[in-house]
């Protein structure tokens, strides 16, 4: 049994010496290899993680920009509605004023035309009546008695 223990100790010492020699001659290369492997694994994990974080930031920024654009759109839309209502009211009031002016001008034109027609009618009727009266007077004055009685009545009126 002691031989067995001695062999195991000798094997352990050999293994330790082997690892010590390997570390002595190739320790730096092994250490560099493990560091590179570690850095490679870390970079493989950190790169997607950093991309994920930057994408989250980009999404967050895009959401903010979309929200700002939506608010700006709603504000612009509301301003356009207010402007359109104001223009509609302005056009409507202008149309009412124009309609009132047209109605006023129409009434004035009707009044002017009515006055013109009245004056034409009056002048036409008066000239017609005057000419008829002249004809009747000429017929009536053909008789000298009527003419003399007319002159007497006029003189009496003047004498009063």
How would you characterize the overall build of this protein?
The structure is a single chain. The protein is mostly helical and 160 residues long. It has one domain (2-159). Helices cover 97% and strands 0% of the residues. It is built from two helices and no strands.
Low-confidence stretches: none
Number of helices: 2
Structural class by SSE content: mainly alpha
The domain tally reads: 1
What is the count of β-strands?
A: 0
N- to C-terminal separation?
A: 189 Å
Topology record:
Blueprint: H1 2-140, H2 144-159
Summarize the structure.
The protein has two helices and no strands.
Features:
160 residues, mainly alpha, 0% strand
């Amino acid at each position: 049994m002691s031989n067995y223990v001695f062999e195991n100790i000798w094997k352990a010492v050999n293994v330790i010496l082997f690892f010590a020699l390997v570390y002595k001659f190739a320790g730096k290369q092994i250490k560099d290899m493990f560091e590179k492997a570690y850095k490679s694994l870390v970079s493989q994990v950190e790169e997607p993680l950093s991309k994920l974080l930057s994408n989250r930031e980009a999404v967050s920024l895009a959401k903010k920009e979309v929200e700002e654009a939506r608010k700006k759109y709603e504000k612009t839309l509301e301003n356009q509605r207010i402007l359109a209502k104001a223009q509609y009211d302005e056009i409507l009031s202008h149309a009412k004023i124009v309609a009132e002016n047209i109605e006023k001008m129409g009434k004035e034109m009707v009044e002017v035309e009515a006055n013109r027609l009245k004056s034409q009618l009056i002048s036409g009727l008066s000239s017609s009546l005057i000419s008829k009266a002249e004809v009747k007077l000429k017929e009536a004055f053909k008789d000298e008695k009527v003419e003399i009685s007319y002159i007497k009545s006029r003189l009496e009126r003047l004498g009063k």
